[in-house]
Amino acid sequence: MLLTGLLLLALPACQQTAGPGGGPRVAAEEGVRVKALYERAKKLDAEGKYAAAERDLREAAGVVERATGGDSLQTAFALSALADQNMNVANFAEAERHLDRAMKIGERLRGAQHPDIAEFLRKQFNLAMLLGRFDEADILAQRYVEIVRRSFGPKHPFVGRGLGQRAAALDQLEKYEAAEPIRLEALDIAQNAWGAEHLDTAAALIGLARTYAAGGRADEAAGIVRRANAIVLAVTKGEGRDYAAALNQQGEAELAAGLYADAKASLSRGLAAALTVFGPGHPETGFSLLALGVAESRLGEFDAGRTHMAGGIDLIRAAHTDGHPAYATALLRQAEAYRINGQGAEAEIFVEKAEAIRKRLIRLGSTI
């Protein structure tokens, strides 16, 4: 998972005044140290080394807080950036504390309707989704959309992205009919803002495809994914992270539609792209390995599939820890493949591990 734009906003803030009502500023010498920590954390994050990135961001937040007395937007941004990495390594209780504090600082200094607050809401939405608190996530997404619509206008890309977040929460609540018009509005905003051949338009199409696939409309979803991926291919020229992601998205859609041979071909290309872009030890490569293994298992190529799934799960677990929902989801996908291939006892072991993670997350989500 890449560090978000909020981290990028925090970087220059460490070398400038916080602005009217923003509280004390970080001195120049301390700002240099914070900037170096952020830049290293960004590099570590891109390499999938989330625990190391978390350590740097925790140190940076401490420097900012000591320099400003803790009552500044710079502290709020630093805590928000740290919360991103807390979530990557399943430190959800810490992420919740940091985001709550960032929100309180932001509301006190900027007011409840300032666009800075929308950024904190976006992080809180991500946390709620990870913890399975989907009704809360829906409410947070609605508030985000309300703020950015008022601040930037009804057709701004931020509005479209917020609508996409809300639709994702509705998908998890199995409210697919409610999610569809929201996805379509988000797509319309992206097309009007960026045009038909843009990565944000492709992302909105992928969101619509996810709603259709989750709602049992796999064939429609597969067609939309192909349309989105044609955009990605045209924009990226077949290179980079977006291209690797597009191939995997296409393969996943083909899996959902029962097109297993096509899925294997797409996911094989996606794995090759991931290895080039991310390298063999990155969690994104792990997700590619896992998906390819599922496709191979569906085709009866279980030995190859088992090897790929195991390698992918090891990478996902190493990056995100064994308490993260991404690891639980990977275990469930592995269990499904084992069950299809007549290995029900082994499948149950994976299901039990995933269920234990889910129960811990539910308990954590109800207490933090």
Please give the number of β-strands. 0
Low-confidence stretches: 1-20
Radius of gyration (Å): 21 Å
Helix content: over 70%
Question: What's the shape?
Answer: globular
CATH topology of the domain at 258-368: Serine Threonine Protein Phosphatase 5, Tetratricopeptide repeat
Instruction: Give the CATH class of the domain at 258-368.
Output: Mainly Alpha
- Roughly how many Å apart are the termini? 23 Å
Using the 3D structure, state the CATH architecture of the domain at 258-368: Alpha Horseshoe
Order of helices and strands: HHHHHHHHHHHHHHHHH
CATH superfamily of the domain at 258-368: Tetratricopeptide repeat domain
| Sheet having the most strands | none
Instruction: Indicate the proportion of strand residues.
Output: under 5%
User: What's the average pLDDT?
Assistant: 91
Please tally the helical runs, counting DSSP H or I stretches of 4 or more residues: 17
Structure classification: mainly alpha
Structure description:
- The chain is mostly helical.
- Among the domains are: 1-91; 258-368, Serine Threonine Protein Phosphatase 5, Tetratricopeptide repeat (Alpha Horseshoe).
- It has helices spanning 5-13, 28-46, 50-68, 73-88, 92-110, 115-130, 134-152, 157-172, 176-194, 199-214, 218-236, 240-256, 260-277, 283-298, 302-320, 325-340, 344-367.
- Helix 1 (5-13) packs antiparallel against helix 4 (73-88) and helix 13 (260-277) packs antiparallel against helix 14 (283-298).
- The longest helix is centred in the last third of the chain and has 24 residues, at 344-367.
- It is globular and about 60 Å long.
